[in-house]
């Protein structure tokens, strides 16, 4: 495939400078007494080419954190360093533009960079090929299934030619079978393109299936509770015993966190 | 634990299989049945209206020369529609409608774009625009006649005042209701300010803008008819002017015939907007499920 792969010396170098680095990041919504502390002194880094999953119960500020890294919002305190890297983001919804065809949606990612129209079109076709949607460029988003739309969304994120991919529960609304297939696809694309991924989910197995590390956040306010390295060989399977075992341990820790709020 | 190791190839095939299953093919029916499906309810509606009209005439509340029945109006309508003079009158009215509406679209677009983008303008003019929208257009005519005299400009002025606020409001509403997720997506893709406005917000507001256009047309058409009744310009026959003289001459059949023409034009233009709206809905996937 002649996908626009970029040269990378060694995409899996875990050393060197991290792709994303959060130093003591806090976020307070609102002012004064009514202010809601969403994130409290979160420090976290995603290495170059690393796949980090962020896990937490509801209200842990996972999505807030991604919004901050994506620059959709700014932190109340602390620093976020991305060293000028290009950042793409995928949401739980596909967030495709309904007035554009599938191909034009992917092309939008290249518009800002001033890529010429003809080149945009042919590169969009390549990106759609990567997510196995080669023949669907002329369709409208609503003509596709949920899983297909999410793949278009992935193709659009890839088309941004980003180094860092932020994913906010991107497969949360999909059925189990589609989700498994998309895990495999995402893993392949991540490796081929040497992306650094920060993946938010509330599904523990999904986190263990995908991540080099699983970062557990507490809820209200969001704090880093623990950082679990996952050293299982890839490709992994969501249903395998090894994944289940690690997931069990993390779930136990997550339960403790949740129970703290009950008492 | 035995987990089958999927190769990249079986992946692609599994995905393709799921995709094919998800996309149950739905096709649109043929053209002729679709047109027939639209036409017969209309024919039914017209039939019912004519029947009620005839019934009222037969009830004899008014003498024939005051309230003519369908049997008298249809021949008069036929006569008029075969005379070049009458078509000239229709032509004048349509020309006024089209130019007035075109200028309204322009004014509405500029006004809507400015007010939706600039916060100070919104605070200053937002409710004024809505206020203008509710102002009966006929109330503008005394002022318009003072300003422009009994001229076409007076009519166009009122048509624009009637239509532009609706069009501007349609655009403003569309901008306000742009789905936040699309804004976020646009932002993440790198669009900022004007580019975000042009590539995300404006296209996203198209359905609301179209609704504004439709309402704007309705207001333009009403204002125009009011204007043509009030501002009679010599040597320039128009539909409103025909209504005026038919009343002066107590020509009930002629009056009703012209009213039918006005109604039909209004419905015809509305159908155009509906067609545009339907095609937009189809492309965006906003069609309602039909039971």
TrEMBL record, chain A:
It comes from Streptosporangium canum. Signal peptide: none annotated. SUPFAM superfamilies: P-loop containing nucleoside triphosphate hydrolases. The keyword Transport applies. Residues 20-244 form the ABC transporter domain. The keyword ATP-binding applies. GO terms for molecular function: ATP binding; ATP hydrolysis activity. Keywords: ATP-binding, Nucleotide-binding, Transport. This is NitT/TauT family transport system ATP-binding protein. InterPro entries: AAA+_ATPase, ABC_transporter-like_ATP-bd, ABC_transporter-like_CS, ABC_transporter_ATP-bind, P-loop_NTPase.
UniProtKB/TrEMBL annotation, chain B:
The keyword Transmembrane applies. It is found in: Cell membrane. The chain crosses the membrane at residues 39-61, 97-116, 253-273. The keyword Transmembrane helix applies. It comes from the Bacteria. PROSITE patterns: ABC_TM1. Its main location: membrane. Residues 90-273 form the ABC transmembrane type-1 domain. It holds the Pfam family BPD_transp_1. Keywords: Cell membrane, Membrane, Transmembrane, Transmembrane helix, Transport. GO terms for cellular component: plasma membrane. One of its GO terms (biological process) is transmembrane transport. It is a multi-pass membrane protein. PANTHER family: ALKANE SULFONATE ABC TRANSPORTER-RELATED, MEMBRANE SUBUNIT (PTHR30151), TRANSPORT SYSTEM INTEGRAL MEMBRANE PROTEIN (PTHR30151:SF40). Belongs to the binding-protein-dependent transport system permease family. This is NitT/TauT family transport system permease protein. It comes from Streptosporangium canum.
